[in-house]
């Protein structure tokens, strides 16, 4: 049976951590360790290591690391399908009569895993297949405890609110991108006398910095951690394997933030140059008057 992982050794050069008690070379449940570090494992063994049981729950750091990195090799909906299938087999959730005592020990753990997944990677659950797997798992354990129905409703409500917020943010990105394009055209056609300086809009640099910080934090909140993985995945032209991201690469929030940050840098640099230019002209006039 898998053991709880040590959070202090999660981020090792090998990528995953050892068992708490493992300090020698060997293989345990398909996980190969060397000097206390997990050096090799099959995808199936790592999936098994993710699945909770009646007396085991993976560490949060392992859950996050595996859910993030596994999408390089398996799509989230397929991963959740395999997790649910293994849970059904191991906990015998297909039996006509369920072992309520065992399910009451297992239920809170699988619900916690699903909750952490929905909170950390909500974009995964934009697919109906993901919602279907989630509901099916809860429906299987709910007859053993009425509290599971309430937990499922709370989980789905929180997920729907999160997805609605993220969807609103994505719609805002489209509108802002369109507005920026229009303003760039107008900016090029306007004479310099009509263009306003930023300090004429907000004369207090501290207040302006605060407002820009709020904007930045709001834009950052829409970026999912999986976008960074997708953004830095480089397909090897000599590799014949098919990447999970080859057909659809969802990095719109990250790309929008990078564009906004670049525009902000240009704005700051422009304002600095304009102030420097004004000072130069002021000094030049002073010299001429002397």
Automatic annotation (TrEMBL):
<dbReference type="GO" id="GO:0005085">
    <property type="term" value="F:guanyl-nucleotide exchange factor activity"/>
</dbReference>
<dbReference type="InterPro" id="IPR001895">
    <property type="entry name" value="RASGEF_cat_dom"/>
</dbReference>
<dbReference type="GO" id="GO:0005886">
    <property type="term" value="C:plasma membrane"/>
</dbReference>
<protein>
    <submittedName>
        <fullName>RasGEF domain family member 1C</fullName>
    </submittedName>
</protein>
<dbReference type="GO" id="GO:0007265">
    <property type="term" value="P:Ras protein signal transduction"/>
</dbReference>
<dbReference type="InterPro" id="IPR000651">
    <property type="entry name" value="Ras-like_Gua-exchang_fac_N"/>
</dbReference>
<feature type="domain" description="Ras-GEF">
    <location>
        <begin position="204"/>
        <end position="290"/>
    </location>
</feature>
<dbReference type="InterPro" id="IPR036964">
    <property type="entry name" value="RASGEF_cat_dom_sf"/>
</dbReference>
<dbReference type="InterPro" id="IPR008937">
    <property type="entry name" value="Ras-like_GEF"/>
</dbReference>
<dbReference type="Pfam" id="PF00617">
    <property type="entry name" value="RasGEF"/>
</dbReference>
<dbReference type="Pfam" id="PF00618">
    <property type="entry name" value="RasGEF_N"/>
</dbReference>
<dbReference type="InterPro" id="IPR023578">
    <property type="entry name" value="Ras_GEF_dom_sf"/>
</dbReference>
<keyword id="KW-0344">Guanine-nucleotide releasing factor</keyword>
<feature type="domain" description="N-terminal Ras-GEF">
    <location>
        <begin position="34"/>
        <end position="164"/>
    </location>
</feature>
């Amino acid at each position: 049976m898998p053991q709880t992982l040590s959070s202090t050794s999660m981020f090792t050069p090998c990528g995953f951590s050892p068992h708490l008690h493992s300090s020698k070379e060997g293989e345990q449940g398909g996980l190969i360790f060397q000097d206390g570090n997990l050096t090799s494992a099959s995808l199936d063994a790592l999936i098994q290591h993710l699945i909770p049981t009646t007396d085991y729950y993976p560490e949060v750091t392992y859950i996050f690391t595996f859910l993030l990195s596994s999408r390089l090799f398996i799509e989230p909906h397929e991963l959740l399908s395999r997790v649910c299938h293994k849970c059904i087999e191991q906990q015998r959730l297909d039996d006509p009569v369920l072992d309520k005592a065992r399910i009451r020990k297992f239920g809170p753990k699988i619900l916690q895993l699903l909750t952490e997944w929905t909170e950390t990677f909500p974009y995964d659950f934009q697919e109906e297949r993901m919602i279907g797997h989630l509901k099916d798992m809860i429906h299987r354990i709910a007859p053993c405890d009425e509290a599971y129905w309430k937990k499922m409703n709370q989980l789905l409500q929180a997920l729907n609110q999160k997805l609605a917020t993220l969807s609103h943010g994505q719609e805002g990105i489209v509108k802002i991108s369109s507005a920026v394009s229009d303003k760039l055209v107008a900016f090029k056609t306007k004479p310099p006398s009509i263009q306003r300086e930023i300090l004429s809009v907000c004369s207090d640099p501290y207040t302006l910095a605060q407002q820009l910080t709020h904007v930045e934090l709001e834009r950052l909140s829409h970026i999912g951690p999986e976008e960074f993985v997708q953004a830095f995945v480089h397909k090897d032209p000599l590799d014949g394997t098919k990447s999970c991201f080859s057909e659809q690469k969802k990095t719109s929030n990250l790309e929008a933030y990078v564009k906004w940050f670049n525009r902000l840098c240009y704005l700051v640099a422009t304002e600095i140059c304009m102030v420097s230019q004004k000072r130069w002209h002021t000094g030049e006039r002073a010299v001429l008057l002397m």
